[in-house]
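User: Teach me something about this protein's shape.
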Amino acid sequence: MPSLTGLRFIAALLVFAFHATWQGKYISGSAGEVLGKIFANSGSFGVTFFFVLSGFVLTWSARPNDTAPRLWRRRLVKIFPNHVATFALAAVLMLIAAQPFAFLDTFASLFLIQAWIPDMTVPTAMNPISWSLSCELFFYLCFPALLWVLNRVSVRMLWALAGSLAAFTVLAPVIAQYMIGGAPLPPIAGSSLTFEQIWFVYFFPPVRAIEFVLGMVTARLMREGAWPRLAMLPALLIAAGGYAVNSNLPYLYSVGGMAALWLTPLVAAAADADRHGMTSRFRGKTLVRLGELSFAFYMVHGLIMTYAHTWFVASGDPSPSARAGILLVAFVVSLLLAHVLFTLIESPTVRRFATARLQRPSLTPVAPVPQAGLEAKE
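Assistant: First, the predicted structure itself:
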């Protein structure tokens, strides 16, 4: 399903756009203020897309003869090589910049448990992007049990479950706002919040798992023929409209899983378009290739942008055109490093270690899947 692969790069670009425009780091002045407002939620939107997509793809491509250990092995060899490589890159950059290492930050980041720790410095330590892998690792560990349960749920109950999950995306920030305390941070988007509230909505893996499970339920409904057909254009309009809605909500409601309400139809529409040969602008050869690089790009771009800003922007006072040039170079370097990571580390490791060798009792997947290559693209 190449459209889903192409959309992955669009989601990675949304995360890049957020980091490029956040706090006017690269684009200053009135243009920076305008772009900062436009892309204020693009990072969280992109992350939610990845979480929903992950649940959808794993469920859609579940294999009849799969086992939990084999699935876990495939997922680990997909995420850990790039994680370890970018963790090492982060350590080198920190040494060059003479930045201190904290044991808890380093340990939690290396073993992908940082999203579980409600401490302001821990979830985004070392390679800040890797907090989302901490969530993904939790999703993968839970997936066999979740799939076993979902395969025993009727279509009617699947719709009830989808509605409950959608409601929980709204309930989570309500819980954070009224039931979680902590010391207030400086005002964020006009609101006085605590880090613990933000952590619960944005970082805490069980809360973010709502988006993953919603993707799983959507895949099951599509397998059963119960998901309504939706063309790509209406799905894109729903996503764009949802982004506009989220951009005008209070902070806690805009950065968490509510984006899944608007992005789940897009994931389903892209999969359906490819399955039935419908028109899609996202399956072009170049975009699909960029989608294949998207995980490596996602993992490396934050480090490049952070240290490019530290060494070439914050240390002086470059002109707006120079800032734009530095940002463009950071993008190109990130894309080149992503190509290196994918070509030399990610792809060879997946080919070497993700191939199933033994036939054992299955995870009871939804149905035999002819699109066996889809999971490797996730």
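Now, about its shape. The CA atoms of residues 173 and 253 lie 6 Å apart. The radius of gyration is 20 Å. If you'd like, I can walk through any region in more detail.
User: That's plenty for now, thanks!
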